[in-house]
Amino acid sequence: AQLRLPVTVPAGASAMTLRFVFDAPGAAGSWMLDDVQVVRPLAALAEGVEANTVVDIFSDVQGATTRLSQNVLPGFRAMAQTADVLVSNGDLVSNGSTANYTSYLSALAAGGGGEYGTVVSTIGNHEYYGSEGSAVYRERFLDSTGMRDIGGQGGLWGEVLVDGQLPLIWIGSEFYDYTAKTGAGPFVDFSEEQFTWLRDRLAHWRAQDQPVLLFSHHLLPYSVSGSYARFYENDFGQEEARFAALLAQNPNVIMFNSHTHWSPTLNDWSTELRPDPTRAHGPTVVNTGAVTTMYGPSGDWEEKAVGGADPVGLRAALYDDRVRVTVYSFSTAGATEIKHVDIPRPTDAPVDPVDPVDPVDPVDPAVALSAQTVAAGGRVTISGTGFPEAAELAIELRST
User: Fold this and answer.
1) Which pLDDT belongs to residue 16?
2) Alpha-carbon distance 318 to 342, whole Å?
3) Interatomic CA distance for residues 112 and 75, integer angstroms
4) Nearest to residue 258, comparing CAs of 290, 228, 282, 283?
5) Residue 323 near residue 211, CB atoms below 8 Å
6) Other Cβ atoms closer than 10 A to 319
């Protein structure tokens, strides 16, 4: 759970004490507090105020095309303020066959997907499922969704600026060997080109104190609903450390993760991710649920389907002082709000611990390569900046 407890400060108070007590029967387990902050809350959002811009979001259709065409999309389009951008955050299909894409795209059109000016689709793991090979499925995803022409980077990753105000970035795995892994992780394979692009774009928007919507079908462990279950503990594989470190540098990011199908009614539907506990702020992570069957916890480390749950979708809305992310349940009768989270706009630079090398001008550690590829017998130079004095570093070489 991420509990938010209101506190009223009495006049004249200069200090406060918070005490946490865990009451439970013997052998009932343990309790962990991993982050306590005292913050000034946002004022209540004025009734009926219209957002500056909105983005509609769904994920994990996997064959539930009737739910998409008759529940989710009509529910979005019936809202008082309509969005111009729609995001389908991975697992559009059950597997990468042409027939599955035909069914999905028909449902998207029937539900009103064509009424959006831009439809961003991210690649999940199910797009790579089947026996035709990773390259075939990757190209079929790009061709079927029309993503090659969206985002300026070829489609698997990219960026659009929604209504000229809200940066929307997505990333995606470039390879998955289904024949070898048969649906097991890790699922994410980044090229140096994609990772470097992402790092640079996040740095660009961080310097401008802009909130960023970042979409990844896959998720980091111990981040948001379901991420502690066994199946999701290794989504990013060898990419996990550097991706988590990058997120830690960008507390202005609101990351949307899918893949688990876990119900947004759970307390950890939205959390603040803390890859680096020494930093005062971390990115917000939101679980997008699913259009298809919803899931929830079973025991300590497993999961089970939630019977009878309606499909869900999200809306991200930009206001003058916040980004509000709201999750809705969509029945045939329309949309019902489940809950929402307000993330303050980063109007000022976040206050983080100072750099031990230069307390006046903090610098985030960074590594750069002189070349992305090198021929046999050639040379590549690795340069680094911002590391503390006498820090022990390891250089890892990988090759396919």
Assistant:
1) 85
2) 10
3) 10
4) 290
5) yes
6) 17
Closest CA to 287 of 212, 218, 230: 218
C-alpha neighbours within 13 Å on the C-beta side of residue 84: 12
* Exposure string over 21-53, b if 16+ CB within 10 A, otherwise e: eeeeeeeeeeeeeeeeeeeeeeeeeeeeeebeb
DSSP state of 275: S
- What beta strand segments (E) does 204-274 contain? 212-216, 253-257, 270-272
Nearest-10 Cα torsion for 310, 311, 317, 321? 50
User: Which of 317, 344, 267, 305 minimizes the C-alpha distance to 42?
Assistant: 344
pLDDT the model gives residue 389: 78
Closest to 238 (Cα-Cα) out of 173, 329, 313: 173
| Sign of the torsion angle spanned by Cα atoms 138, 160, 271, 352 | positive
Q: What is the mean pLDDT of residues 106-124?
A: 98
Over the stretch 123-144, which tens digit does the pLDDT of each residue have?
Answer: 999 999 999 999 999 999 999 9
Average pLDDT over residues 75-86: 96
170 pairs with which residues across the strands?
A: 158, 215
Mean pLDDT of 273-298: 91
Query: Rounded to whole angstroms, how far apart are CA atoms 103 and 63?
Result: 8
Beta carbons of 236 and 190 less than 8 angstroms apart: no
Q: Give me the mean pLDDT over the 21-28 stretch.
A: 78
- Interval 207-238: pLDDT, tens: 999 999 999 999 999 999 999 999 999 999 99
Structure tokens at 44: 């209540």
More confident residue, 107 or 273: 107
Average pLDDT over residues 17-44: 78
C-alpha span between 212 and 50 (Å, rounded): 20
Of 98-112, 180-194, 328-342, 382-396, the one with minimum mean pLDDT is 382-396
User: Per the structure block, which two tokens stand in for 272?
Assistant: 């603040």
Partnered with residue 121 across adjacent β-strands are 88
Expressed in angstroms, the distance from the first to the final Cα of the chain is 41
Rg (CA), the chain: 22
- The SS3 of residue 343 is strand
Identify whether the C-beta of residue 245 lies closer than 8 Å to the C-beta of residue 197.
no
Q: DSSP H helical segments within 158-273, as ranges? A: 178-181, 192-207, 240-248
